[in-house]
Tryptophan synthase beta chain-like PALP domain-containing protein (Capitella teleta), 362 residues
Amino acid sequence: MPVGIRSNSLIAYTPPSWAEKLKNVPTHRIQLGHLNTPVHSWKLPGLPRDVQLAIKRDDMTGSTLGGNKIRKLEFLFADALQKGCRHVITCGGLQSNHCRAVAVACAQLGLKCHLVLRSGLKDVKDAGCEGNVFLDKMMGASLYYVPTKAEYTTELLPRMQTLADKIRDDSGEDSYLMEVGGSSDVGFYGYVEAFHELEQQGVLDSFDDIVFACGSGGTAEGLAVANHLTGSKLRVHGVAVCDDAIYFHNHCNTLLAQVGLTDIRSEDILNIIEGAKGLGYGLSQQPELDFVSEIAMSTGIVLDPVYTGKAVLGFLNQLKANSSVFKGKRILYIHTGSNEGIVLWFSMLVDCREFLERTMVG
Ligand SMILES: *Cc1c(COP(=O)(O)O)cnc(C)c1O
């Protein structure tokens, strides 16, 4: 393959020097994202005057293959290919960005994709074809529906394992099982590398705080651990859009043990901001949807209603409530959002007629 042209093949991976001592460092990655993503200033309305804000555009890691999940998938798919798997099985919510990204990457790499999706559907025929479900189907993924409240370890994981067994019985082929959100000790390296990218972009010395949405914890873990290992003095804040601080610290402490960092605890390297999840994961209220529209109109940045909209709103509220903590600080918001599917779906949540009337001229 000529230089500069990508292939789907494995690339040898060497971690940044500060990450070399971690346990089980991946040996390979593949290239899925369009990196490095840009950083630019962001004039968010309602920002206190003495605070400076910039945004890292991880919403621009790709198009259908976009957002923060791609960084994790570069390592997870390398692992799947190294293990000789022909199928990938993962799970998430009905409108999961992670599942959509896995479906796209599978299509690109010639693997078969199986998605176990949590939904409140009584009948699979009601699944519809909206947003990410549309993209999942377009990419040829097989979809399996489970109840919204299905627990990962007791229900989703066994379901994925049964499916893998059936695939092996039917075809003799192996399946790669991927955790919710790709937040495993392999996917973790996606955001270790993202931090390395920030370092190379020279932004570490220009900021005091980094802030982002926290859903399954992988983004938070990669950034917080890398920040700790480099000795950088940035404060790392994940805004919880589901679960709570205890949940994310537990998840992160498990990861710390897996990578052999037993001398630190999640609580020392990561701040989880609560109070942003509203009605709960994936559920929106009108003021949150209005906020997403307002930010689009005033800054040209599209947030999504599930993660980034709630995270930015929650963070702004935190800035106002705890102004002394952020007074005079230089803050980098990491836009984790790929909006491809979620925005299609968002367009169904807003009342388009009311929206049109509000924005109509003459
Ligand atoms: C998945 C997702 C997140 C959450 O990232 P985690 O690593 O799972 O915590 C945030 N924003 C968007 C847009 C996402 O799709």
Observations:
- The first strand starts at residue 11 and ends at 12.
- Residues 95 and 122 are 17 Å apart (CA to CA).
- The domain at 70-182 is CATH 3.40.50.1100 (Rossmann fold).
- The chain has 13 helices and twelve strands.
